[in-house]
């Protein structure tokens, strides 16, 4: 009886030790995440519906301080910057639409790089599996911004001056400042991509360079949104924070595949089996 207890204790120790060691090893030949169609498909569908709704802005009411058709250039029709904080006040009235293309390039460029790098690194099967989680984080980050801008109705910086033409300031897009969807989406994609590579290679340093490149790209996108007069600094700061948080949370909610390995284990004059698995 005592010997059997010793064998059981040794087996439990082996399982625990092997599971802990496997947590620090690269996931060779396996994807980073366990995708659950019953959960991920509905989440993707809902997030995609909200993102698609961002394009239906033609029917939105203009900002509360939008100019009137009678005298669109009257000073009384501009938004009052006195209610802004000192940082946001510095860009009030700015309108440089040429920066918009650069923020679009950064937004769609980082998504393309994330998809391409995962597919090349993991192969089509595992890459597509993990792309579901990255896409989920990206779309949820974008949907969060869409909800926030619709609820808050904060005027964009160009609503505080006469640089933007009246037709722009009278449109519904002028009340969608808080918080930046370009920034939240970019950071959601960048951080979730880093989380994926870090889970695949927890002992390597190079995934941190991926994170650094993603943060740099997100910062450029955020800067372009501010320089173009589309968002205030606080809009992009909150967008970066929300996007990064979602980029961490969505991958963290997905467990990795847990392979089970059975191997012989000799104990004294008897033999046995040890079962190892990666515990969540």
Name some characteristics of this structure.
280 residues, mainly alpha, 57% helix, elongated, disordered N terminus
- How much strand content do the residues show? under 5%
Order of adjacent strands in the largest pleated sheet: 1-2
Number of DSSP-assigned strands: 2
Count the helices. How many? Answer: 9
Low-confidence stretches: 1-25
Give the biggest sheet.
2 strands, antiparallel
List the secondary-structure elements in sequence, H or E.
HHHHHHHHHEE
Give helix % range. 55-70%
Radius of gyration in whole Å, from Cα? 25 Å
* Average residue pLDDT: 84
Shape: elongated
In whole angstroms, the N-to-C terminal distance is 32 Å
Structural class per helix/strand content? mainly alpha
Describe the structure.
- The protein is built from nine helices and two strands, in the order αααααααααββ.
- With 280 residues, the protein is mostly helical.
- It is elongated, with a radius of gyration of 25 Å.
- It starts with a helix and ends with a strand.
